[in-house]
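stage 2 :: seqdesign
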C-alpha cells in the first residue's frame, strides 16, 4: 500500500509538472511574439494588393556569389559601393555594376561583421560610413585610396544605413534589427531622433538594408524577400513589394541567403537589388501605385 501511495504521489506530481510546463511554455511563446509586433512573412500573408504594386525586371547582371551582401549603394552611374558581412571575410568594395567585378576590395578586421554602408560628402571629399553588426563600431572610409580613416562607436546593433536628403545633408538613417530607425549626424554619428516603423498600425521589426530616396526609405526586411517603403515623417509603411520570384532556385527555402541589398539608380529611376551570396543582381522598375 505504501508503495502504491508513493506511486500515486509521483504520478500526480508528474502530471502537475507537465501542466505547469505547458502553461510556462505558452507564456514564453506569447511573450516572445507580442501581438503588437509582427515579424517577417507573417506580416505579409493576406496583406492584400492595395499597398503592393508590381515591378518589372529590366536586366540581370552577375554578382559575386561570395559576397554576403549587407549594404549596396551607387557611387556614380556605373559603380556601386558594396558592404559584405560574415566574421573573417567582411569587406567594403567598389564594384563595376554591369560586370559585377570588384574594382577595389578592403578587408575588415576578422572580428568585425560588416553591415550597412552609405556614401556622404563633406569638405569636398567623398567617403563611406560602414556599420558592424554587434561590434558597435562604424568605420569611415576614404575612396581614393580606399582606406579606413576614422572609427566611432554607437550603442546597440548595426544593420542598415543610408544618407537622407543627399550626400551633403547631415542626416543618416540607421536600422538595428528592431522596428526603430535612428537618425544620426553624418559628421559624428550622434543621435538626432528616432522613429518606429509601423505597418497598418503594428510595429515591423527586422528592418535591414536601407536605401534613402527623397523622404522615403526603401528597406529589406530580414529573412523575407520583401521590400517595404517607409515614410520617414510618420514611420508608416506606404508600399511593399514581394520579390520572392527573384530568389535563385538554390536559395528558395533559405532563411539566411535572402534578398538583401538595394541601391537606387537615380539617372534611370530604377533600383538594383541582390541577395546574400546570390550569383545575380537585378535591375528593376517599381510601380509606385497599384493597378
Ligand atoms: Ca542601400
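stage 2 :: out
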Amino acid at each position: 500500500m505504501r508503495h502504491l501511495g508513493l506511486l500515486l504521489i509521483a504520478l500526480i506530481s508528474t502530471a502537475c509538472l507537465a501542466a505547469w510546463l505547458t502553461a510556462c511554455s505558452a507564456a514564453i511563446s506569447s511573450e516572445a511574439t507580442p501581438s503588437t509586433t509582427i515579424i517577417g512573412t507573417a506580416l505579409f500573408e493576406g496583406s492584400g494588393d492595395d499597398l503592393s504594386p508590381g515591378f518589372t525586371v529590366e536586366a540581370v547582371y552577375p554578382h559575386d556569389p561570395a559576397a554576403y551582401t549587407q549594404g549596396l549603394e551607387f557611387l556614380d552611374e556605373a559603380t556601386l559601393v558594396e558592404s559584405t558581412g560574415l566574421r573573417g571575410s567582411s569587406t567594403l568594395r567598389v564594384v563595376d555594376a554591369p560586370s559585377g567585378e570588384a574594382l577595389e576590395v578592403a578587408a575588415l578586421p576578422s572580428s568585425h561583421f560588416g553591415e550597412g554602408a552609405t556614401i556622404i560628402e563633406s569638405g569636398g571629399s567623398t567617403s563611406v560610413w560602414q556599420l558592424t553588426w554587434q561590434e558597435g563600431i562604424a568605420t569611415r572610409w576614404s575612396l581614393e585610396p580606399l582606406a579606413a580613416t576614422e572609427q566611432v562607436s554607437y550603442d546597440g546593433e548595426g544593420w542598415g544605413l543610408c544618407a537622407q536628403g543627399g550626400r551633403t545633408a547631415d542626416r543618416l538613417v540607421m536600422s538595428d534589427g528592431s522596428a526603430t530607425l535612428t537618425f544620426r549626424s553624418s559628421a559624428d554619428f550622434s543621435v538626432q531622433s528616432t522613429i518606429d516603423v509601423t505597418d497598418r498600425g503594428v510595429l515591423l521589426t527586422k528592418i535591414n538594408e536601407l536605401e534613402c530616396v527623397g523622404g522615403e526609405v526603401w528597406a529589406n526586411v530580414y529573412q523575407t524577400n520583401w521590400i517595404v517603403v517607409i515614410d520617414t515623417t510618420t514611420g508608416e509603411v506606404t508600399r511593399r513589394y514581394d520579390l520572392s520570384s527573384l530568389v535563385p532556385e538554390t536559395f528558395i527555402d533559405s532563411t539566411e541567403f535572402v534578398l538583401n541589398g538595394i541601391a537606387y539608380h537615380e539617372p534611370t529611376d530604377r533600383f538594383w537589388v541582390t541577395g546574400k551570396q546570390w550569383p545575380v543582381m537585378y535591375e528593376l522598375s517599381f510601380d509606385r501605385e497599384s493597378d
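stage 3 :: structure notes
- The radius of gyration is 22 Å.
- Confidence is low (pLDDT under 50) at residues 1-42.
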